[in-house]
Structure to design on (104 residues):
């Protein structure tokens, strides 16, 4: 590397080295965060695999033809639209309201 002087009388080589050191520190910091993220993703993947294995063991423990093992024909719960419920608790709620009105 040639030694040149900049306009302030400092060697250009020194400025270049400082820039390289700063860039190197930045790269190390980014790589550190990247490795942390990769480790976290690997932990999630291993946890997922453990849960999948647990699910398979639970399914194997059920007898053939168990209702849980037969898929339902209707939509999954998360795809259904809420339509106000099935009315199972409406009669009880009406009774509670009547009791409150009578006691007032």
């Amino acid at each position: 590397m040639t030694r040149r002087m900049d306009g302030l009388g400092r060697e250009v080589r020194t400025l270049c080295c400082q820039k390289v050191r700063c860039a190197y520190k930045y790269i190390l910091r980014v790589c550190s965060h990247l490795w942390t993220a990769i480790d976290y993703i690997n932990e999630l993947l291993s946890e997922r695999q453990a849960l999948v294995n647990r699910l398979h063991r639970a399914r194997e423990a059920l007898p053939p033809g168990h209702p849980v093992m037969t898929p339902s024909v209707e939509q999954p719960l998360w795809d259904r639209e809420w339509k106000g419920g099935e009315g199972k608790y409406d009669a009880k709620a009406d009774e509670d309201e009547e009791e409150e009105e009578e006691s007032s």
In short: The helical segments are 12-61, 90-103. The chain has two helices and no strands. The first helix runs from residue 12 to 61.
